[in-house]
Specification:
homodimer; mainly alpha; Arc Repressor Mutant, subunit A; Tetracycline Repressor, domain 2; 2 domains; 10 helices; DNA-binding
DNA sequence: TTGACGCCGTACCGTACGGTACGGTACAGA
DNA sequence: TCTGTACCGTACCGTACGGTACGGCGTCAA
């Protein structure tokens, strides 16, 4: 066990969203894992990873400790790659706000329905249920931090700025986020996770995102 | 392989929501599986089921064919137990509509955050990602049919009745469902599935449900 | 040149688990 | 009483896979 991770730079201290620093070779391996997860979901074997990445098991275990470590590193590596659209801060106007929200929603929909996101979310959901105490494998936690939580950390300041600018009105600070999340995502995520054949086109995403932004402003706009 | 299932009454022909007819003893076994899934998630062993239900492996395989068959039967058995609140049909008023929606949302939130639903959804999500062609194991399909789809089959007529009564206005028939789903559920389901510590009290569920109903009517009411 | 090091490839070990086989028991019907 | 059936309990088999050990090879520094 011994939590090896020799070559890896970052420690595992609550580094959920900090960009881990992996060597080039390590990133190749992690990308191979990502590809495998898209193809076979969780449940890929370590041997398959070695075959795919042309590396040895020994190296794998030296670098990542055990299977859970590899999985965790993979999720963190992918999380570090996701980029979110920039949100305006100062000098908000109503149209700027609506555009920002629509753009954000469209991007988020695209991410959530991507094969990669689906595979990772599935893995995280699976692991969240194993082992009652859920001892190790903080996969769910990591995905949560880089998913809904990250989304909220980006949106809440925007909502606050909107209220300061007199564009929005709400009491409970948690309310607008939940409403916007619901309007934008709806049942899309659970459908794709359950394997429903949901293939959103770019146009559909834009349409839904625009609608969500409009409806959100109808509810919380002044 | 031979798809045994000797004693079982119903056939597996698209019986996703029809109440399967299991013998009393079989239902005991399936309840044991449900309990195990709550405790250990998917990944319980067949031996554990036998221990829990005091039955033999041979019987298990005679009845359910293989592990996937047992899992499928369990999900169907649980689905057949879920009851949804009755929705009004004729003589709708605005307040009746709002009450119905709030009640429906509150009930749905309670179901989604129950340990049993979480365990089953997790299992279905996991299995939806295994085996690229997703050959067997229609777990995701079943949960989808008895989850969001069932919800929608109940709500759509209500929305249509509301429109007929002049209480609602919408173009796309799919729109109000998605909006209501989003407003009611928000990010709650994905959070619980990912293991986030979300413990909604009865009061919180009622509050959110009432808010969702109110907001829905603000968007689609006349 | 030599040695240390990091890594690949592969063989190997232990175990957990899905699935099968079989003996033993209770019971129902002839 | 005999016979068939349905089931329990358990021993057993085959395999897949996580994890380890080891030999060989290229590289780099002394």
């Amino acid at each position: 066990m011994n939590m090896a991770v020799k070559t890896r730079a970052g420690q595992e201290t609550a580094a959920d969203e900090r960009t881990e620093e992996f060597s080039v070779r390590q990133r190749e391996v992690l990308d191979a894992v990502l590809a495998l997860m898209v193809e076979e979901g969780d449940g890929f074997s370590m041997a398959a990873v070695c075959r795919r990445a042309s590396c040895s098991k020994e190296t794998l275990y030296n670098w990542f400790g055990d299977r859970d470590g590899l999985l965790t590193a993979t999720v963190q590596w992918q999380a570090s790659k996701v980029k979110m659209p920039v949100l305006p801060g100062e000098g908000l106007s109503r149209v700027a706000l609506e555009r920002a929200l629509a753009g954000f929603a469209a991007n988020w929909l695209a991410v959530l329905t991507s094969d990669l996101s689906i595979a990772l979310n599935r893995a995280a959901v699976s692991h969240a249920g194993q082992g009652a105490g859920s001892g190790k494998s903080r996969l769910g936690e990591i995905v949560l931090t880089n998913g809904p939580d990250a989304m909220r950390r980006r949106l809440d300041p925007l909502f606050a700025a909107g209220r300061d600018a007199g564009l929005l009105a709400f009491e409970d600070a948690a309310e607008p986020f939940r409403a916007f999340f619901g309007l934008a995502i709806g049942d899309t995520q659970i459908r794709v996770l359950l394997g429903g054949t949901v293939r959103l086109t770019e146009a559909e995403r834009e349409h839904r995102a625009a609608l969500a932004a409009k409806q959100f402003l109808a509810l919380y706009g002044t």
